[in-house]
Amino acid sequence: MTIPLLLLAAAFVLILANGFFVAAEFGLVTVERAEAEKAAAEGDRRARTVVEALKQLSFQLSGTQLGITITSLVVGMLAEPALAELLRGPLAALGLPEGVLSPLAVVVGMLLASAIQMVIGELVPKNWAVSRPLQVARFVAGPQHVFARLFRPVISALNTVANRLVRALGVEPAEELASARTPGELVSLARHSAQAGTLEQDTADLFVRTLSLGDLTAQHVMTPRVKVSALQSSATAEDVVNLTRATGLSRFPVYREKIDEIVGMVHLKDALAVPVHDRLRTTVGRIAQPPVLVPETLPVRPLLTRLRSEQPIAVVVDEYGGTAGVVTLEDIVEELVGEVRDEHDGLDLPELAVAPPEDGRPSWDVDGGLRVDVLRRIGLDAPEGPYETVAGLVADLLGRIPAPGDRTDLPGWRLTVRQVDHYHAERVRLTRTDPAVETHAASSPPAPRTAPAASAPARPAAAQASAPGGSSAPAPAAAPWSMTAAPGPGTGTVLPHAVPGGAAQTAERRGGTAATGREAVPDGDADTSGRAGRPARSGSQAEAVR
């Protein structure tokens, strides 16, 4: 009885050793190289051993396979006969005949040994390594490195034989595993390099944006419907010129009866090509070009291809066939390089404008259209939800339409609504309430984006619009491009003539897309042009009039 127990004890130790080699194999395969290199750079000696093991990963994996094979064979040699011997007594007590007793004891012993080996020696260490790759790799790298060095001749000989067999099959074996990194590893590496000073911050930001571009769709980069300027097909070439003068934009969607019925796209140059004496008689329906229509789920990369090959502006269509917004080539470029400015852009508020401290606590003023993921720069990690912008986050937290002065809280933060426009939070103040929250943004605010200016005075029917050069010019009294938008995106009602409700407007400016600001109107609705209100952009253009 003593010998079988000793054999089982030895077998259990070997099962643990088998689990060690399995953990080493999965730990080295699943660990992120960039994460290990970062820990090693911070002085973690075990992480340095992991990095060294990753440099010769193929050899290390061969060592783990050798260890797994040896321990598994020895466990079978020790555990199965020992268990069979221990099981003979209980099985004999059942009154089984001698001819059946021995074979049954061997079978049951083999099943028990295999089950214990599989659970403790295989599955548990595998699941542990997959769940905590760096932790496991740090734990096993040192002993595994020693084992591989001790058995280097055996491992090298086995590798040589295996390589010859692979070549006989017509495949050239690789000495090391492919060193391709995942996008997450590349992002982590770029940020670490920027922090270490080996990579310029602007270059690192461009690199990260480029990698993230594949996750975006047309819906993420478009200008939303409620901020789109459009012309009815019955409008004239003169209306195109007037609308360009008022907004600084050069391309406009053309609709038939309502904004969901886009029939074309008109450019300023097409209107200017019409003789002056014919502009009041030439409708935009005659000079408009066929529109580029794309679904809102279209990934940005194929969208970029279409914009480059067809037109630099496209109409985004939602799943119900309605107009969701417009997207331009410049919108996508700005996802990579940041805000692109020209002579038609006014000064912008920084997307994370530093505000005066409240009760000694740091504060920031942000535009409601700012994407919530940008808030991570100041340490605010918004919870997952059915929203993409700060305005959507506030509405979700409040559970109602926000009003000026509304406050809501997130862990470590207070959100205060400073300004409301068209039923959504236009400006929001973020105040840090937990000093332990880490800020990832630079101590100085980012480069300015938009500077608030006084709103244009209200006037009947047609609002005063500023020309691109900065001087004010009266808009036509009855422009077929005026629109009213009902509360909330996607519910606009397009009217053929100017109405007191004002219009939410966006199109492409001369040389790109731009926001034009708000035009005050009697009913209080504001016209906002360009990218200012779309989720991907920040800076409230609703407070500026060019």
From TrEMBL:
Location, primary (coarse class): membrane
Q: CNNM transmembrane domain: which residues? A: 1-203
Q: Name one GO cellular component term.
A: plasma membrane
Kindly list the places in or outside the cell where this protein is found, as annotated in its UniProt entry: Cell membrane
Give positions of region: Disordered: 427-546
| Low complexity: compositionally biased ranges | 450-487
Transferase among keywords = no
What keywords would UniProt list here? CBS domain, Cell membrane, Membrane, Repeat, Transmembrane, Transmembrane helix
A Gene Ontology molecular function term of the record? flavin adenine dinucleotide binding
Membrane topology of this protein: Multi-pass membrane protein
Annotated CBS domain ranges read 222-282, 287-343
Where does this protein have compositionally biased stretches of type Basic and acidic residues? 427-437
Family that this chain belongs to = Belongs to the UPF0053 family.
Write down what this protein is called. Answer: Secreted protein
Annotated source species: Streptomyces griseoaurantiacus M045
